[in-house]
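Thread amino acids onto this structure.
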């Protein structure tokens, strides 16, 4: 209709060139300032930007250009998500190797420059005025260097200095070019980032060294030593790249769950055609092709079994180690592993429509979604670099004003201001929360749980009440045999029950009715040999009948059985007892005589009671919320260990119960699986859905359990608490490091220790700061969740 807002779409763009939180802020600003953009979230960890936009006002191509204009690289997303994920993994691995290799060359260059500079560093007694710490190194290294390399001291000082200047400049141009390119790009776009700080510091050190080499007499005449800092400049850049390389390697560890999912996609598939079996590349397989899957092979695509029986290892999908039995009509997930049988299955989904691709997409989206605690770090990071540059300038002025004056004082002032530039670490602030989110989502994925981002983690950490739907959540959602009551009292009840169940399963074997399947499954579970029934026919509204071993066998509803003849009082009483707890009862008639009653009920999940106990041990209160009758609800609640029950509740009433709990100050998680749970899932602080449930429920939830194991719920809440604790610890460390390191670099400890911070030591501290945050997050993988 006229005046309606244009429909919104979402796209995730790969973004390159980001190194710190300031970069994230610049890219986000560029995207949010573009016409038609409703929301933009940029992730330093996944190197991507998730953008919600109006197609009528802009396009993905225009968004890519907006990122490029801000000084960073961007591309349109690849259509094949799994291939894109593998390409990203390869690119991150190459980036880490390149950074570490270049860092190694620069650090080795620092060592060479340090020894080669010995004749220059020891030539002037005034060296300690510039950098006492480096002077101490020089005094310690000079004797062994003079003994090992006496020819070095015979070289002309100017020639040696020029050679060091050219060699250092060449190493910097080859190995550290990216730092200066990114700093220049940021400057051209009137912004700053971590590269700005490092580039300014390195250029200042290189400029001081070049001046000393080219104009030594001018410095000596003014009472200053013509010191060179080639080893310091190479060390600054080397340690910065080393930190980035270690960070990239650690970041690759945090994305291991994504990489392992993408690696599950098969490269080839065997299909059956009119001409026989053909082995094809997976890209040539089409929907509705008939796959032939042999024992031990990886299932190449999502498919539906048409022929054969086998067990399939679905641990990659659900985290459940026990193989799952598959037969005709069962769904197969691409990437899972076939067991001992041969299966023929019709392809149902490929590429981006596959279950694996959807899981990768969910995890990438989750890892890009910020926790609310991240917003504080973002606001600090946005002004961090300009503030540090201002503090560096203030440091220079303070040292000039409080120093001895002259050229030596100016050299010391420049030294301190360079240390301030180099020691500051915006990276640690930017990585503090995203690394914890990424590790936590990866840990959850290995346990068969998909989390929708940092906001879900932060909300999950505060949950103190979990509300469970009953049918399909606490219970299995289908009828199972709960009791067999035999009419004959004197016989061996176990033998008589098995004999009755054998006859019932025989006539129900060909039926797809849920009650029929429950009887057949129970007979199979007991290992009973079920004979073939003849003349089987359905009795509409009543049951089924057939002939088994020349005996007339009927399985009838209670009403139909009563109409067929008198029922023993024993069976009538048993029916009343079981029906009061929600069971459905059917009666076996053997040659017209009521022989046994079968009670079939929706059974409690095996994991329900242990999950409720684990929640209680963690101080979390459990509540049942169901539309079923109160007697049925209380029976299930008692077996699960739940004391708070809300029964006979309509979908709107479920929402009201959740809102009432929240109004009383509770932090509420809702667990459900059906359409009628979707509104309550959305209303809760944290929505948890079972993957076996409806699409609507999964879309309304924050957490999806890929296997119907309620024991994952206390694990998820424990993981959320551990993740939030890690986020806070990381932020405290990042903030504390900068609060302490910057004043020390400015010279706060000089009155006590008499030694200012060396730029080389500053660069090493900065590298350690960002790496320590990533390593702290990786400890989440070892968190105890039980």
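Threaded sequence (786 positions):
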């Amino acid at each position: 209709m006229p005046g309606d807002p244009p429909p919104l779409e979402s796209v995730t763009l790969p973004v390159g060139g980001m190194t710190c939180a300031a970069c994230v802020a610049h890219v986000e600003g560029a995207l949010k300032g573009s016409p038609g953009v409703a929301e933009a979230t940029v992730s330093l960890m996944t190197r991507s930007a998730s953008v919600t936009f109006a197609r009528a006002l802009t396009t993905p191509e225009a968004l890519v250009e907006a990122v490029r204009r801000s000084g960073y690289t961007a591309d349109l997303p690849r259509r094949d998500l799994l291939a894109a994920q593998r390409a990203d993994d390869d690119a991150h691995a190459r980036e880490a190797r390149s950074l570490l290799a270049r860092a190694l060359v620069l650090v080795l260059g620092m060592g060479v420059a340090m020894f080669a500079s010995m004749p220059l560093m020891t030539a002037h007694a005034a060296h300690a005025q510039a950098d006492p710490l480096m002077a101490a190194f020089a005094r310690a290294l000079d004797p062994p260097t003079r003994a090992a390399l006496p020819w070095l001291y015979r070289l002309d000082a100017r020639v040696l200095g020029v050679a060091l200047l050219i060699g250092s400049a060449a190493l910097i141009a080859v190995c550290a070019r990216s730092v200066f390119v990114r700093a220049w790009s940021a400057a051209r776009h009137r912004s700053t980032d971590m590269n700005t700080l490092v580039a300014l510091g390195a250029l200042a050190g290189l400029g001081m060294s070049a001046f000393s080499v080219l104009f030594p007499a001018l410095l000596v005449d003014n009472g200053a030593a013509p010191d060179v800092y080639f080893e310091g400049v190479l060390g600054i850049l080397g340690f910065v790249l080393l930190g980035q390389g270690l960070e990239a390697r650690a970041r690759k560890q945090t994305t291991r769950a994504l990489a392992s999912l993408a690696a599950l996609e098969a490269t080839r598939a065997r299909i059956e055609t009119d001409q026989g079996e053909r082995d094809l590349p997976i890209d040539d397989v089409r929907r509705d092709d008939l796959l032939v899957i042999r024992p031990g092979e990886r299932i190449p695509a999502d498919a539906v079994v048409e022929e054969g029986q086998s067990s399939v290892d679905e641990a990659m999908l659900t985290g459940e180690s026990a193989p799952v039995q598959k037969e005709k009509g069962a769904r197969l997930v691409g990437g899972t592993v076939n067991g001992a049988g041969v299966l023929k299955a019709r392809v149902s989904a490929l590429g981006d429509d596959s279950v694996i691709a959807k899981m990768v997409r969910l995890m990438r989206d989750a890892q890009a979604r910020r926790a609310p605690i991240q917003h504080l770090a973002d606001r600090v990071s946005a002004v961090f670099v300009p503030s540090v540059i201002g503090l560096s300038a203030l440091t220079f002025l303070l040292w000039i004003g409080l120093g001895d004056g002259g050229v030596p004082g100016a050299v010391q002032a420049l030294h301190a201001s360079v240390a301030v530039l180099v020691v500051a670490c915006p990276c640690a602030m930017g990585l503090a929360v995203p690394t914890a989110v990424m590790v936590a989502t990866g840990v959850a994925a290995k346990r068969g749980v998909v989390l929708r981002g940092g906001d879900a983690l932060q909300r999950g950490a505060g949950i103190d009440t979990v509300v469970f739907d009953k049918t399909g959540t606490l219970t299995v959602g289908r009828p199972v045999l709960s009791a067999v009551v035999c009419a004959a009292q004197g016989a061996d009840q176990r033998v008589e029950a098995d004999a009755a169940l054998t006859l019932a399963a025989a006539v129900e074997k060909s039926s797809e009715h849920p009650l029929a399947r429950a009887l057949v499954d129970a007979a199979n579970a007991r290992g009973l040999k079920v004979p073939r029934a003849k003349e089987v026919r359905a009795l509409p509204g009543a049951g089924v009948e057939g002939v088994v071993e020349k005996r007339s066998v009927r399985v009838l509803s209670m009403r139909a059985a009563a109409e067929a003849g008198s029922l023993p009082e024993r069976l009538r009483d048993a029916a009343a007892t079981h029906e009061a707890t929600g069971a459905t009862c059917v009666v076996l008639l053997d040659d017209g005589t009521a022989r046994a009653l079968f009670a079939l009920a929706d059974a409690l999940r095996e994991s329900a009671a242990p999950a409720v106990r684990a929640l209680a041990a963690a101080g979390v209160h459990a509540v049942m919320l169901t539309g079923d009758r109160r007697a049925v609800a209380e029976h299930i609640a008692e077996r699960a260990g739940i004391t708070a029950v809300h029964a006979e509740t309509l979908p709107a009433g479920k929402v009201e119960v959740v809102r009432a709990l929240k109004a009383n100050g509770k932090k509420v998680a809702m667990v459900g699986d059906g359409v009628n749970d979707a509104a309550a899932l959305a209303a809760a602080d944290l929505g948890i859905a079972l993957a076996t449930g409806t699409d609507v429920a999964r879309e309304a939830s924050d957490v999806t359990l890929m296997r119907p194991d309620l024991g994952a719920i206390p694990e998820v809440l424990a993981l959320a608490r551990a993740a939030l604790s890690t986020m806070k610890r990381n932020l405290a460390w990042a903030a504390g490091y900068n609060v302490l390191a910057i004043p020390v670099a400015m010279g706060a400890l000089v009155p006590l220790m008499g030694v200012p911070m060396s730029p080389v030591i500053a660069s090493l501290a900065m590298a350690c700061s960002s790496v320590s945050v990533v390593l702290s997050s990786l400890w989440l993988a070892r968190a105890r969740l039980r």
